[in-house]
Design brief:
Its main location: cytoplasm. By secondary structure, the chain is an all-alpha fold. It folds into 2 domains: 3-71, no CATH class; 127-214, no CATH class. The chain is built from 10 helices and no strands. Helix 4 runs antiparallel to helix 5 and helix 7 packs antiparallel against helix 9 (170-200).
Length: 215
């Protein structure tokens, strides 16, 4: 036996007598639950196709139980084309309003960023300034030494130039390098003194104090 033969009919499953599938009985029936079963049996077509009787049973069930689940039908999901232009209008208006507000907020933010609030810049501490000055002096000193070294390297005598080697005086070259280093050191010390005087200078200093600074 196949599945169709073993499957019970709804009329047997619900235990509804065959004589209840009748206009007279349906018109007098007051049991909503039984009427739901009769409607299901008639819709299934297992006992035959009776459109008028099915409609009569559905109308009776609608009187007894208007919210019956048998009156619920699945509807297909509708796309955007299901809405008319009139239905789309409030959606488009809302979208445009949001875009306008976003533009206004962006413009206001840019305007606020350009406004000068008159707040002075953050001051740097003296220690940081001193470090910056020391770094500048070291950089200049290193640059001077590097320049002197590069000058010496450019004047280096080739190993095959025997004529210049005969004229080369090692003592004189050492003396020249020492003088160059002394000049660099004196320049650094002079700038350090100037920086110290500038830091110690005050607008309301007396003449005596200014003379002491010059010393």
């Amino acid at each position: 036996m196949n599945d169709k033969e073993t499957k019970r009919k709804l009329i047997d499953k619900y235990e509804i007598p065959i004589n209840h599938l009748d206009f007279a009985y349906i018109g007098e029936c007051e049991n909503a639950r039984e009427m739901e079963k009769i409607v299901q049996i008639l819709r299934s077509g297992e006992e035959g196709y009776f459109p008028d009787l099915t409609t009569c049973a559905e109308n009776k069930l609608r009187e007894l139980k208007p919210n019956s689940r048998l009156f619920r039908y699945e509807e297909k999901l509708q796309g955007r084309e299901a809405l008319s232009k009139q239905d789309w209008k409030p959606i488009f208006d809302w979208t445009n309003n949001i875009k306008v507000k976003d533009t206004e907020l962006s413009a206001a933010a840019e305007k606020m960023a350009k406004i000068d609030l008159g707040v002075p810049p953050v001051r740097k501490s003296g220690a940081i300034k001193q470090c910056d000055e020391n770094n500048e002096l070291k950089a200049k000193q290193n640059g001077s030494v590097a320049a002197a070294t590069s000058k010496t390297s450019t004047e280096r005598i080739k190993s095959t130039d025997y004529g210049k080697w005969d004229k080369y005086d090692a003592d004189e070259e050492c003396l020249r390098m020492e003088l160059a280093e002394e000049r660099v050191q004196e320049e650094v010390e002079r700038k350090n003194r100037l920086n110290n005087k500038n830091r110690n200078y005050k607008p309301n200093m007396t003449t005596t104090q200014l003379l002491q600074l010059k010393r």
